[in-house]
Amino acid sequence: MEFAPSPLPATEPPHDCPRCPRLVAFREELRGEFPGWWNAPVPAFGEPNAWLGIVGLAPGKHGANRTGRPFTGDYAGDLLFATLAKFGLSEGVYAAKPDDGLKLTGAILINAVRCLPPANKPTPEEIRTCRPFLEAPVAALPQARIFIALGQIAHQSAVKTLGGRLPKCTFGHLAEHRMPDGRILIDSYHCSRYNTNTRRLTPEMFEAVFARAIELRDQTSSTSLP
Ligand SMILES: O=c1cc[nH]c(=O)[nH]1
C-alpha cells in the first residue's frame, strides 16, 4: 500500500504530530521497519453530519496504524464494521482496507489517542495530550447528539470532551450518561479480540448498544439538542 498524506481538516493532528515523544519514537521505529504502512496519527473516519460519534481507544498496530483508517484491518474492526452495517450505519462492503469504498452513514469513528501506543496502552499523559484531537472534531459535529465510548479510556476521554464530570459517570456496558448540554454518551465494552474471545463482549451485547443509540436518536430527534 502506498500512502501520500492528503490535506487534512484543521481538526486533525498533523501527519508528523510531535506532541508525545514516546509515540513519536515508536512511530519512527515502525516507519523504518514497515515503510509501506501508514505509521502516523490516524484521522477520524465517517460523516461530518453524523448524528452518532463513536469513540475508540487508539490505532491497532496491524490495523489502523497499518492502513490509516480507524479499526480497519484488525480484529476489532470485524465486529465493529459488521455491526455498523447491520444497523444501516454504513454503505458498501468492508474489506479491511482503506480503499474498499466503505462509507459510514450517520456515524463517525474517532480514536481517543491518534497514534499507536506500545502494547496498546497509552499513558494518562498521552491520553490528555491527544484530547484536543477528540475535542476539535467533536466540536465540528453539529448533528452529533449521541456518542458511544468503546472501553474505559474512550469513556473517560469522551466524558471530558463532552463537558461531563467523571465522578458522576461510572463506566459500565450499556451505561448511559447525559452530558450538561443534553448529548448522551453510551458505554460499551471495547470490541477487542480479548473481550470478544473471552465473551466479556458478545455480538449481541454490542448490538444492544447500537440499538439503544438508534432508539435514543429517534426519541430525541424532535427535541432540540445542540
Ligand atoms: O480502539 C481501537 C482499536 C482498534 N483500532 C482502532 O482504530 N481503535
TrEMBL record:
Domain of life: Bacteria
Listed InterPro entries: UDG_Type-4/5, UdgB-like, Uracil-DNA_glycosylase-like, Uracil-DNA_glycosylase-like_sf
Residue ranges of domain Uracil-DNA glycosylase-like in the record: 43-210
Entry's Gene Ontology BP terms: base-excision repair
Pfam families recorded: UDG (PF03167)
Molecular function in Gene Ontology: 4 iron, 4 sulfur cluster binding; DNA-deoxyinosine glycosylase activity; metal ion binding; uracil DNA N-glycosylase activity
Keywords: 4Fe-4S, DNA damage, DNA repair, Hydrolase, Iron, Iron-sulfur, Metal-binding
Family under the similarity heading: Belongs to the uracil-DNA glycosylase (UDG) superfamily. Type 5 (UDGb) family.
Descriptive protein name: Type-5 uracil-DNA glycosylase
Species the sequence originates in: Sphingomonas oligophenolica
Lineage: Bacteria, Pseudomonadati, Pseudomonadota, Alphaproteobacteria, Sphingomonadales
